[in-house]
Amino acid sequence: MPKQENQQSSFSIHGIGVSSGIAIGRAHLVSNALLEVVHYQLPKHLIDDEIARFNTAIHTVKKDLEAIRESLSKNAPAEIGAFINTHLMMLADKSLSEIPKEIIRKEQCNAEWAIKQQMDGIVEQFDAIEDEYLRERKQDVVQVVERVIKVLLGHPNQAPNQSSTKQQTVKQQENATILVAHDISPADAIQFKQHHFAAFITDVGGATSHTAILARSLNIPSILALQRARDLINDNELIIVDGSLGVVIVNPSKEVLAEYKLRQEQWELEQQKLQRIKATKAVTICGTVVELHANIEVPEDVVAVKASGATGIGLYRTEFLFMNKRGMPDEEEQFLAYKQVTEAMKGMPVTIRTLDLGADKQMNPDTVSSCANPALGLRAVRLCLSEPQIFLTQLRAILRASHFGHIKILIPMLSTLSELRQTKLLLERAKESLRKQDMPFDENITLGGMIEVPAAAINAEAFAKELDFMSIGTNDLIQYTLAIDRTDDAVAHLYNALHPAVLKLISMTIKAGERLGKPVSVCGEMAGDAKLTQLLIGMGLRQFSMHPSNILSVKQQVLHSEVSVLNLHARKVLNHTDIEKIELKVAQFNLH
Amino acid sequence: MPKQENQQSSFSIHGIGVSSGIAIGRAHLVSNALLEVVHYQLPKHLIDDEIARFNTAIHTVKKDLEAIRESLSKNAPAEIGAFINTHLMMLADKSLSEIPKEIIRKEQCNAEWAIKQQMDGIVEQFDAIEDEYLRERKQDVVQVVERVIKVLLGHPNQAPNQSSTKQQTVKQQENATILVAHDISPADAIQFKQHHFAAFITDVGGATSHTAILARSLNIPSILALQRARDLINDNELIIVDGSLGVVIVNPSKEVLAEYKLRQEQWELEQQKLQRIKATKAVTICGTVVELHANIEVPEDVVAVKASGATGIGLYRTEFLFMNKRGMPDEEEQFLAYKQVTEAMKGMPVTIRTLDLGADKQMNPDTVSSCANPALGLRAVRLCLSEPQIFLTQLRAILRASHFGHIKILIPMLSTLSELRQTKLLLERAKESLRKQDMPFDENITLGGMIEVPAAAINAEAFAKELDFMSIGTNDLIQYTLAIDRTDDAVAHLYNALHPAVLKLISMTIKAGERLGKPVSVCGEMAGDAKLTQLLIGMGLRQFSMHPSNILSVKQQVLHSEVSVLNLHARKVLNHTDIEKIELKVAQFNLH
Hints:
Two copies of one chain form a homodimer.
Chain A lengths: L10 E4 L1 E4 L2 E8 L17 H25 L6 H15 L1 H4 L1 H9 L3 H17 L4 H4 L2 H16 L7 H11 L5 E5 L4 H7 L6 E4 L7 H9 L3 E3 L4 H4 L5 E5 L4 E4 L3 H22 L15 E6 L5 H7 L4 E5 L2 H4 L7 H14 L4 E5 L26 H7 L1 H15 L3 E6 L5 H20 L9 E6 L2 H5 L1 H7 L2 E4 L1 H9 L17 H17 L3 E3 L10 H6 L4 E4 L4 H9 L3 H13 L3 H11 L3
Parallel strand pairs in A: 3-4, 4-5, 5-6, 9-10, 9-16, 10-11, 11-12, 12-13, 13-14, 14-15
Antiparallel strand pairs in A: 1-8, 2-6, 3-7, 7-8
Helix pairs in contact in A: 1-2, 1-7, 4-5, 5-7, 15-17, 17-18, 20-22, 25-26
């Protein structure tokens, strides 16, 4: 990937700001494609060690391949042996076994990055071949390199990844690192949580992609959909990330840098001001109480929940328990996780959403979904009902944890009443089995349903009759109502929470809950957007669940709200059928 | 794929009947996966020719590979040469160069089938290998075999595919051939149209898959989702396909065969009876006129439209013009196609839907969509608005054709008003350019929109204000409302036109049209389902568009309808929130 190296002049790139705040720091590029290989520089005295590490890896892969060749049965097709020989030959070839060492020495970089750079070059040569099937042979090169990189990554002691990054950045004027990637998969995200990046910026993604959710959950500025950030920005270049405006400034001038340092301070001051209302109850001017709950992914998030002043957990996403490893977590492991959260919340409600896997969140990150439209496929409660043993295990674990606090169960992706009824039967079966084993659980545990499929919102009254509470998942509801995949760059600009049809479905669901006396909350991204708080209050919403980092700014809106005024405003908004007019009307809310 | 060869006993397999009627004939298996290789038997005297054909193909591929190796530049990576050598070695190996000839001789089958069988065996051996990257090397075997098969198929003169099939079947007692496939892609479908199969049966698919639409468009019985039909049925076995019941009977006993021949005659008799109402106007008992229009894909379909007694074309799908070739059809080619249909319809309305590509229908069948959820991506009007030149060309072609009859323009996949307004601007621009060139077109041409995204149905009144007419695309509307991909086997059973939310959206759209005096039609599969005709009339629908083969059975329902009674019934149905109860209620319609 050739880059213009003479870009010392300042320039800016525009994308979608998905997490507010300002970060100033050095760009840290991660490479493309299958191999998300990290790049870091090494001090001179470690170069020889790095080359030795590389030699060891090549040698290990060679031994592995030879061992596989030896172990082949006599009946194995002759081709298999031939492939091993081909791969061994590739491995022995100068291009893979020697040139990367030159790169390590010359660029003072880590071994993984060096061999990856070399591979990219070879792949480019393959890409230039006209014959299609030969062109595809580049996959073999990729596979051999992948083997080497896997071995390299399997020796983390010798790859001082994080500490070297710090070493490097401390030497810089700006001691923050900004991750620049093409995209961040949910699996990467888990890994990146351990690093300490000051901001994320990516070429693709949208406001509600996993990267966005991750950035907000880490409470760091983030800009997505920058298109060519990775091409335009050089590793280690100084950049400013303005998450509120969605702008990245590369190589800022001294004046701009000074200006942004000021703005950064102001931003932090504002955040501190918000801290003052942390202990304040979320009550409108007219005295209406609004519950502000938090969304969490792992038990460790409870610390942030407590710090935010949230009065409960409105959405505990359990799939992260299932995604970070190969096997299924057993009942005991789940029980302990749920119990830990429940006990830490000390009697405040903890709403546990049952498994929402399928679609973009796969149980095994290596599995590539084979269905054409995973978002319209076997996911969430559909998957659980088709795998009742997994579902029962989770329900038992949740029930057992309910003995230790105030747990509520939330079922994702309901579209028909019969799914709900099947779920109730399984829940009853789980309870029965616990009773037989004399295991205690909360006999009064309540069951709620996510309203996130248009069919469920349209049929909300029927669902409200058979549920104890409802939670509107606006991210998916918008996606299906508009038929827009929010993670698809080609159409992401059409994704809009203020589409009149979306507002109508949300309103219908809230009203259905009101009529039947069943609480309704919103737990999608809309709930955490302070610009929409007063609209939702006006529409009748009294319970919001959002990332802990948004609680205070939403609370500030609540404190300035007057229900009767907002009801009128909301009614006017709902009467409009043009998105543009709705956006204008909603902007006026913020005057109050 | 080992098959139980001793299956001479009769048995039946159940699937989803997607096209009614009864077929009795010999099974014609097409092979799996990438290579949809046809299997046919050869008379003894042609076996030597077939082996010679195979030898020639192997030789040709060898020469091709050697030529590629010779043409490699000195700078090419060493691996490339090595791969060619590996593939040449595979080609020379007995397993690919000799064993298929033994198979041809022993099984008296065509060369493609023989080498494919052999490949399947080798691939199975690879699949048993534990090492993941080696296991994937089976792709090389597949590629070499693909090369051979492509060469074989490139010599159709020597592969008397179709004529030999006929030769063979004429000798049989039953002179019909039934296609047994794993699946039929839209691209295959176009190819299969030229064959003359008496029925289609496939392992996968659902009621509204492309295979189903194709079967109905060919008016031949068809059963999908049979799971393992291809494993259980042997090539050339006698089978009965009962498309109405969704049952395949393999190796029927004499009694069953006789019974089914009788039923087949009765079915044909009923079809003939329906022919009597062909010229009858579709009017209810109480005198309400119902328009029954036809859906078509290619100008040739007009013959069937005329034969059906349809009073217009409610949906002319133009994408088939774009799918069957590599380049874009130019304005002239499109103009001629639209003009041909319009002139043939002699003043009856012809509703031309603008390009609905993207999602599952790709312009180039070799392109694999890279977006995660194509159904929620850049398709239909979204794609057209992002490629205004393609859109303008089509609009100009439609406008020019409008001079020769009664054309209406229909825009697919609208979700926001701004898409509609952008479309209107482009249409105006197309008109302006024609006026400047003094090219005549219908200045009163009307513009309609497909209501198939939930957002559009919920916002139907706003769309009705800015459109001349609306057409409900129930297939997509159901898909998005329920978040169910109708072609995904794992969830196809959840796809249900009678979900209360679906009926509510249809009803809302019809009512919005009524209030604003804008005609509304239904052009999805629901329109052609005679079991739903009276429900839809009761809901206020007065215009149906369906495959020509359904016109008469739907008309029969219209002739027995009394609007006031059906209105009451429909209201009762719409009050229900349980699918099961709705299904029961709708079944009662048929008593009238």
